Amino acid sequence: MSSSRIGGTKKVSEPSCFDKKIIEEFYASRVSVREYSDDPVTDDEIRAACRIASYTPSACNRQASRIHVFRDKNVIRKLLDNQLGSQGWCDNASVLICVTVNCNYFGGNYERYQALIDGGLYAMNFVMGLHLNHIASCFKMFIRTPRREKEFKKIAKIPQCEMPVVLILGGHYKSGIVTSPKSERFTFDELACVDNC
Q1: What are residue 96's DSSP bridge partners?
Q2: CA 20 from centre of chain
Q3: Rounded to an integer, what distance in angstroms lies between the CA atom of residue 118 and that of residue 53?
Q4: Which residue in 20, 140, 143, 184 has its CB near the most CB atoms, within 10 A?
Q5: Fold for domain 31-174?
Q6: Confidence (pTM)
């Protein structure tokens, strides 16, 4: 193991000034996309998104999140059939990504939800990494029943120690404009409970 992989401490200070308007525009520009071009998503593009996701905070810095990438249409179809079908749009994707978490990193009832929390955070940053690299994506929730999960892991060849968290369908943007689902964002006043909770 190289010395760069050994844990320790580092010096931290307040970061330099950001252009907050540009960064907010970047976050606001990411939307769920369900139509994709036929151009394949490459390993380098997936790797670039993983680099962004690698900065995701995790419980005790355990970094237990993993991704499984599927491009074979037959395998993708089997996985989608297990997850209640393609719903008329999933077949358009050139890649299906399953975010999992290695549960061996957690123990005890008090940590029973931590894998889902860590995996959800990782998935969010991974999708923003895809967006940064101009890869369109859409989340598909994971149907969590014991039978389906067992079948899913068998089809996907996911180790028993890993818990699937969410599915992500993706691909390159089509040229021109496509129709995308829309929902209004909640505001701070609608979401926050300040001082009077």
Answers
A1: 70, 169
A2: 24
A3: 11
A4: 140
A5: NADH Oxidase (3.40.109)
A6: 0.92
